[in-house]
Amino acid sequence: MLRFRGTSLDDADLVIYFKNIDNAFMMFTAQMGVPQAFAEHRIFVKGDISVSMSLIRCLNIVETHLFPPIIYRRILRRPPSMGLKKQFCRLYIYLVGIPIGI
Amino acid sequence: MLPSYYEFYNPVKILSGNKAVENIPFELDQLGARRPIIITDRGVAGAGLVRIIEKAFADTTLSIGAVYDETPPDSSIETVNTIAGIYRKTGCDSIIAVGGGSAIDTAKGVNIVITENSEDLMKFMGAEMLKKTMKPFIVVPTTSGTGSECTLVAVISNPAKNVKMAFTSYKLLPNVAVLDPRMTLTCPPKITAATGMDALTHAMEGFYCNQKNPMSDAYAGAAIELVRDNLVEAVKNGKNENARLAMANAACMAGTAFSNSMVGMVHGLGHAAGAVCHIPHGIAMSIFLPFGLEYNSVKAADPIGRLLVHWGGFDEYMKTPVAQRPARTVELVRAMKDTLYGLCGLPRTLSEAGVPREKLPEIAKTATGDGSLLLNPEELEYDDALRVLNEAYA
Q1: By the CB < 8 Å criterion, does B128 face chain A?
Q2: Do the chains contact at B371 and A50, CB–CB below 8 Å?
């Protein structure tokens, strides 16, 4: 199970580092997906690489909720199917989550 | 088409050919080392291969500090720490690994522990975590092979925590790789076939997976052609030094390729099958390679099609319609598998390898956690992995 445990590096089982701010910006603004970021050595990993696979699957899900299809289809190898519930969730994020933060 | 960004690094000096081993003392001297430890296993020592290296030091002022020949088939943290202790106690200043992937990975682990002056390898687990320059390190592979003499990867198990620790760092690359045909002459036919298919898989996956680049493609293509032209002969006639040296070069080039372009689902499935059912790595690669090619032949149609130039030859490539080239590549890989099965009984399917069908779900689950899948052109989830495993079963 993956959990958020705060911002201290000491307790982390896995740390993903961005080599520089430009790389981080490219990834977080969906100019490239996580697989491409790994392929281009933009990020590196401290810890168990197999745990990073679970994290990346979580990031894929987050990206499909945050970005519209025209963007996530470009950065994900196989976009997951978005049923009605997930579509509603995305709408909530756009209308309430991002503007108000709840 | 050029990738938008790539990195390529291979500083390993390659010595290949007749009496290459005899140059080891000179290379150590060039690196400022005088007293190496030799890390190997019982099989290699028993075949007399370590004696060839010891003889090379006979008329020199260098001396071998220690020989450790009890490396197990799977590198482990306990073995690494034991060898590091011997290294320190005998005043060694460099490392020579003689053997297959296990001995080489163990030696890489020893180098980490010695250089970082630590006993906790887990602190350095991950990618690009090593910062210090390692001790002088020479590799003499005795299989053709893992290509570990030219890779930045080491995998070492920690049985106490039930974890396979993966280390990826440019610092792990050896200073020198020595390809001497004498070192693989005693390799039995089935192991020659399995390790040869391992080298082919490294080259092919490196050619079509997502981290590919023009430099790694050059190495991969050359490696594939050497395997195409020499593997069968090396299996049929193990005493053919030319074939043995060609396969050693193929494995080394394939290692260089995949070290700079990584691998994909064939390795993901292979690692999982090895972890769950203890199938030897080369056999797993041979079984899964055509299925990996087929699975990716939509997303990676162009590179898999272009593999036909190297694997089938230029004439075969030109006479095959573009749309059929990936399928023809797969067909020729299957033909090689059949040839090797006929020559030495190399398993072609999971059932021939003795894998129980009820283990397939566990293998599929384990495979989905493998980092190799990240650079596979097509996504592979549990259901996909299970489907491919069932296809590879019979």
Answers
A1: yes
A2: yes
* B13-183: CATH class: alpha beta
Residues from chain B contacting residue A44 (CB–CB below 8 Å): 126-129
A77 and B379 within 8 Å at the Cβ level: the answer is yes
Q: SS3 string of B160-197?
A: CCCEEEEEECHHHCCCEEEECHHHHCCCCHHHHHHHHH
- Say what the ipTM of the complex is: 0.86
**B188-393 is a CATH 1.20.1090.10 domain:** yes
Q: Is the Cβ of B275 closer than 8 Å to some Cβ of chain A?
A: no
Residue range(s) occupied by CATH 1.20.1090.10 in chain B: 188-393
Between the CA of residue B42 and those of B74, B92, B103, B331, B348, what are the distances in Å? 13, 21, 10, 39, 29
pLDDT string in tens for chain A (102-residue length): 566 767 776 667 788 889 999 999 999 999 999 889 989 999 888 887 778 888 888 888 889 988 888 999 999 999 877 788 888 888 888 888 888 877
The whole-model pTM stands at: 0.94
Helical segments of B31-125, H only: 42-46, 49-56, 77-89, 101-116
